[in-house]
Design a protein that fits this description.
With 209 residues, the protein is an all-alpha fold. Helix 3 packs across helix 5 and helix 4 packs across helix 6. Strands 1-2 form a two-stranded antiparallel sheet. The chain has helices spanning 44-83, 89-95, 101-108, 115-132, 136-157, 167-186, and strands at 2-4, 19-21. It starts with a strand and ends in a 23-residue tail after the last helix. It is built from six helices and two strands.
Length: 209
């Protein structure tokens, strides 16, 4: 407020202005601020716990997505194998990069396979693939025979792309098919060939060297 101390002179005018500014007091009732943080205060322990929690959540989410991706890949692979008639030796060679994807598809996908022949084939081919993963000699033996057989099958199914017949592949197809049919006929055991890619061998992919 202002305290005006001027008086009226004889001429009717006020004396010169003399003012003194006296600001009024402002009363503010504040609550208990003893436990309130100051402006800009950071709780380091709480922030660290929150950061650790978010990291663990992201890690768990990443692991879950990875597992889902692995399951989807395994399901897709099994479906491809089902369409391919349960091939295992050529599949292993394809995985090793010895047989191309194109040749593999031309030789396998969509071809009908007699169940008796397939059972006899899996009876010896499944353990043979397991040996291919541990030693190089079985891979060296399987490479020329399987590639020749694949070229023979590709020639039958896509002669425009594979115009040259493979006599070795024809021999493997006839002799090998007869042997597998005989084994499946006298030993009617259905081998779970998918165990090569699931179950106890869940550590796929295996070393290629």
């Amino acid at each position: 407020m202002y305290d005006d101390k001027r008086t009226i002179q004889d001429n009717g005018l006020l004396t010169p202005k003399q003012q003194t500014y006296r600001p009024g007091l402002i009363s503010m009732k504040l609550g208990n601020t003893a436990n309130k943080p100051d402006a800009g205060h950071i709780n380091i322990d709480q922030d660290k716990a929150l950061a650790d929690y978010r990291y663990e959540q992201q890690l768990a989410l990443g692991q879950q997505q990875f597992q889902q991706s692995q399951q989807q890949s395994a399901a897709q692979f099994q479906q491809q194998q089902a369409n391919a008639g349960g091939s295992v030796i050529c599949t292993e060679l394809k995985r090793l990069g010895i047989m191309s994807q194109e040749l593999y598809e031309q030789a396998h996908l969509g071809r009908p396979v007699n169940q008796c022949v397939l059972n006899g084939y899996h009876l010896w081919a499944v353990p043979y693939v397991e040996s291919m993963r541990n030693w190089s000699l079985p891979r060296l033996i399987a490479k020329p025979l399987a590639l020749a057989w694949a070229y023979h099958r590709a020639h039958k199914l896509a002669p425009d792309q594979y115009p040259k017949e493979s006599l070795l592949g024809l021999s493997v197809h006839v002799i090998g098919g007869t042997i597998c049919w005989t084994i499946g006929l006298f030993i009617p055991v259905k081998v779970n060939w998918q165990s090569l890619y699931t179950g106890r061998n869940s550590g796929y992919p295996w070393p290629t060297q």
